[in-house]
Backbone:
């Protein structure tokens, strides 16, 4: 690495870190939070075995899991305007990422709920609990320790998936690296530096995941 490239990378680092703080991290946290609500609702609908709603939930999960996320972004950002619905880059990305998280994480939550012994639900009904009360007071707390690791992996995966938002004109880490590289022509080093920024964020989340797992283990 030459001295010129070194200085350019040092100069570029804050320019990559800023969109990470202003765009990538907020986009990840907002999308994941909304996605978790969608996932929990979808999982509960399937566990409750309400025929019509269960089929609708399975259809939603099937569609989202079997289509590329970048295609979903294109449909929302470039396709919806043709029917009169226009969304800015950030809301469009939040919508797509939230729906995607909801589909994938719903299967994680559903599996975690179903891993809890069915006798727990029977005992809850015998104690006078409703379905909702049994779920939120008995079943879901027990399912959390099972669901936490894969849900944490989904969050880390979402950080990396936000790089797709550059395709809908959202200036996040990768888009910033592309803009700088187009000016300096140091594509290799700048893309490598962008990867380092993603690595830092995901490493921090990995540490939080391990601490969360230990906390859940201690509560058992």
Residues:
């Amino acid at each position: 690495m030459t001295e010129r490239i070194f200085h350019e990378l040092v100069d570029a680092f804050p320019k990559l870190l800023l969109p990470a703080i202003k765009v990538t991290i907020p986009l990840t946290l907002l999308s994941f939070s909304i996605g978790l609500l969608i996932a929990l609702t979808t999982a509960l609908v399937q566990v409750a075995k309400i025929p019509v709603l269960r089929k609708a939930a399975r259809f939603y999960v099937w569609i989202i899991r079997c289509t590329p996320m970048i295609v979903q972004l294109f449909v929302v950002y470039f396709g919806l305007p043709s029917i009169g619905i226009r969304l800015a880059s950030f809301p469009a990305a939040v919508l797509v990422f939230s729906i995607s998280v909801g589909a994938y994480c719903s299967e994680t939550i559903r599996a975690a709920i179903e891993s809890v012994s069915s006798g727990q639900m029977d005992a809850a009904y015998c104690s006078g609990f409703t379905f909702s009360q049994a779920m939120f007071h008995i079943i879901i707390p027990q399912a959390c320790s099972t669901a936490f690791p894969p849900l944490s992996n989904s969050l880390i995966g979402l950080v990396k998936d936000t790089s797709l938002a550059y395709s809908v004109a959202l200036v996040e880490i990768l888009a910033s690296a592309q803009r700088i590289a187009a000016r300096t022509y140091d594509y290799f080093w700048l893309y490598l530096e962008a990867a380092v920024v993603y690595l830092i964020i995901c490493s921090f989340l990995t540490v939080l995941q391990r601490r969360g797992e230990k906390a859940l283990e201690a509560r058992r």
Summary: The chain has one domain: 3-219. Residues 33 and 42 are 14 Å apart (CA to CA). DSSP finds eight helices and no strands in the chain.
